[in-house]
Amino acid sequence: MASTTPRTFDDHQRDRRLRLAAWLEQRDEAEAAVILCEGWMAELAARGLTLYSRQGLRSLPSDLSLLERLSTKGLDGLSEALSWQSEDQEGKEPDGAVLISHALAVAGGRTYATHGPGKLDWIGHFVAAVDNLSWETFADSSGETLARDPVLLDRFTSCLVEIATMASEAPDTVIESSPRGPSAASTIEQFARGGSFQEIWEAERWPMLFRSSDAFEILRRAAPERFLMVIDRLPHPTLVSQCLSSEALLSSQHDVLRLLRTANAAFDAEGHWRCSGMAAILLLRTTTDQLLTPEDEDRQAEHLAEGIARFRNAIREVLDTLFARSDGAELAWHWLENLLRRRLHPPRNDQRDGPKQIINRIGILVHALSSRMAPRRSQDGWISAAPPLERQFRAVAVLSVAAWTTTIAERDVKSIAKGLIKGDGFELTSTKELTQLPGAPLRTVPGDILAALPQPASWFGETWSSLRFERERSWRAETQTSSTPAKIMGIWGLGAIESLVTNPEVPRVNAGEMWLAVERVFREAILVEPRLGRDFWSDAVASLFLWWPQIFTEADKLVDALEAPSPAPAALAGALAPYVGISNDFMVIIVALKQAGCPMLLLDRAVCLCAGQDLLRMIDRFWLTARHLNDARAWNQAWVAILAAIEKEIQGLRENVVASGPGAQR
Questions:
Q1: How far apart are CA 308 and CA 647, in angstroms?
Q2: Where are any strands of DSSP class E within 195-245?
Q3: Which pLDDT tens digit goes with each residue over 572-589?
Q4: Cβ atoms within 10 Å of 119's Cβ, excluding its own
């Protein structure tokens, strides 16, 4: 006989739901259990008794024994299940455990709503202690009870208003802070003096715990408008964020947008953020997380089109809500800036199934948002108003709106893009990540824009030449971590290639022209830009060659091309010729080609065509001359392993050629 024990947590949850649904259909028994539990909790409240754990059930006076009361009413199965829970017994959970947990949660919710927070806070803790999966039922029951009784709702709201007032006037009485950090009072005072939009958006960075956030969640379920009114009285974004962090809200975009429609304005008419509008900012951040969380369907190529269509529909609903607000335009600019700060985290690939395709949600969302916006009146001033290292996000936001907006036609995107770089108004951080990180917005968004220009390759080459003075001027100030106009051009060029290659509607020749234009720029940069060993340009040229096989030779024909006279080795030899040498730059290129799926026989022949060079000899010399290759602090050991694999594979290919030559078999 097959075991009926749930195999996973999801199976366990499904089994619980089925048992509970069947029990609730027996309305008499279910309601009798709820009424009995509600009466028992009322007696506890009347005597001033508290119960924070299920183990405390055994220590109650005999006349308050819930186990005996259940048995007396003929609910022996529920009594036995509660006994099993209170004694922390092991083994299979009794069938009645989920039923008595539900009854206690519903009864607890009704009792809590009747007495209000501050008096019976222990009930929610007790319900969760009996069954940590039943808190949602408790919160729903409390909210429904409050919504049906205006008197109870007024009293409950007044209590939360008092708590919000205490958070401002005596924060340490309602907020827990880290013992090693500043007090809640000093944190709130500091925010009041110099708070900003960005600090609201990053509300979780302060280690504070708002003890009453669960009570605020119950008010949200009962009266969303009152909930917004009360949380906007809170003095710090961390407190507001915790009131907006319930699992139920985070999993419901409908509920988030409902709140966003009516939340207080986050900006005044002059574009300054308002402390009483923190909820709107945090709700926008919440819906951002909801939109950008990959779905399971994203991992399957056949579902990409369906997933993109569903994602676009979700975006449309959010944008309609945003731009219906009086402060929607200003919120949109700050939202766009923060979208460009984010990283796209693709799902891990299962190596057995090969790489998976994903939806570039950030890029699609940035495009959709930008198309609904209008350029700012003072774009340069808005960029320069940000701290130096944050101007990069605003600069790309300005470029994105200029490129995709539908409010103003015939905007000269070429001049705007060139002006942003030429003006020396911003620099890029983490340039290494921007060349390599999948979906990096500061690469892909400008790349999509440049790829959409007429003749992007020509614009790229001409702009590079016209920026010679700015590039040379930046040499003196450059450090290991700072960026220059040259690096910005390099990253944007890589983004344009990526956009052209991944867009099936773009002719392959366009991607090839862009690749050649970027390669010419990189070749010049390697010769004239300041270099520091394995630097930005080494990473950039590796990223460039990752696209070579996909652009210039169809992957499935690479091997076939080697069996007959073919231009493929000669074409690759021409691309490699400026870089061939016993150097870091060349080694990262051949590793990149290996990662891109280029056959090693093709690579070996191409290098041989480069003035008769021997790839094996060059790799061998690199092993001898490169320092600390076995030190993970100096070299990426995964990269070193790939280079070793290339050497081994080429040796094997050459041995096979010799073995199969004339006279090999006699």
A1: 42
A2: 208-210
A3: 999 999 999 998 899 999
A4: 13
